[in-house]
Amino acid sequence: MASEDVKRSESAVTTIVNLAEEAKFAKEGVQAPSHAFLSICKSLVAGGVAGGVSRSAVAPLERLKILLQVQNPHGIKYNGTIQGLKYIWKTEGFRGMFKGNGTNCARIIPNSAVKFFSYEEASKGILYLYRQQSGIEDAQLTPLLRLGAGACAGIIAMSATYPMDMVRGRLTVQTEMSPRHYRGIFHALTTVLWEEGPRALYKGWLPSVIGVVPYVGLNFAVYESLKDWLIKRRPFGLVEDSELGVTTKLACGAAAGTVGQTVAYPLDVIRRRMQMAGWKDAASVVTGDGNSKAPLEYTGMVDAFRKTVRYEGFGALYKGLVPNPVKVVPSIAIAFVTYELVKDVLGVELRISD
């Protein structure tokens, strides 16, 4: 009997200690370790789901964009969005419309998860430093600070998943006439690593880093700044009870995607060309005899820019731009809205604008 009393007393003490620790964490504005870990997992899941849903929704346009970016100017197959989609459907069928999407999702799901989570963590860190520097305890993130947080998130996410992006591009472009044939993601990764070396997995990484700063940074900055402006100004009766509807959030995401992709698009073209350098169906140049066409090789990002403009003109830096807004705008909008909706479903208290 005495032992049972002792056990009950110990249990009560443990409960009190746990409650005291939780109260301490709450008072200090810090989450308990287990709760914080669960919140991190939920945030990563939300980001992954957002990435997978948004990219799958626009997979045919994603493939067409890549094909337009790297196609040989001396053997045009794709003349525009409608013609290009019809050609893919006619020659490759339904599966051709989604070729490379499995690889794309395998890359974008972890990329999106890391990107959204990194943005939240970078935002908290930057806001903390900003409040310390300014001495204003209730200071909020400015558009410029949001741009910085988005840039940090984009660089981290892109660097972590870049090899997947590289092989995804090759899987998307390959045909029966391609110099190499990859059976899937793992086979592509191991083949590139074995035949071309580890550096080949990061071809085009530099323009990607440079491009991701304005692209992801502007996406987050424009999206959150627009939401903040709408909530504070309440124009046209779009906002009720300090909450935006799904349609309004989609519009904010669409605006963010339009601004980001327009600024960063030339760097995306150069990145893709560096990844596809040497491929038969990629950009080429007429050789000395005036007839044969050799695939272009690039020594670096600047060389890729120079040769692209020299042989194809400045407009080549915007190849595939027409289908890209049709793809990017809804993709970014769907990603932001899906992310916030999934976090609501999972019961995560913190959303990106909080």
From TrEMBL:
Keywords: Membrane, Mitochondrion, Mitochondrion inner membrane, Repeat, Transmembrane, Transmembrane helix, Transport
InterPro entries for the chain: MCP, MCP_dom_sf, MCP_transmembrane
Domain of life: Eukaryota
Gene Ontology CC, one term: mitochondrial inner membrane
Pfam families xref list: Mito_carr
Location (main, coarse): mitochondrion
SUPFAM superfamilies attached to this UniProt entry: Mitochondrial carrier
Residues annotated as signal peptide: none
The Solcar repeat ranges on this chain: 38-125, 141-229, 244-345
Cellular compartment(s): Mitochondrion inner membrane
BP GO annotations: transmembrane transport
Membrane topology summary: Multi-pass membrane protein
Entry similarity comment: Belongs to the mitochondrial carrier (TC 2.A.29) family.
Protein name: Mitochondrial adenine nucleotide transporter ADNT1
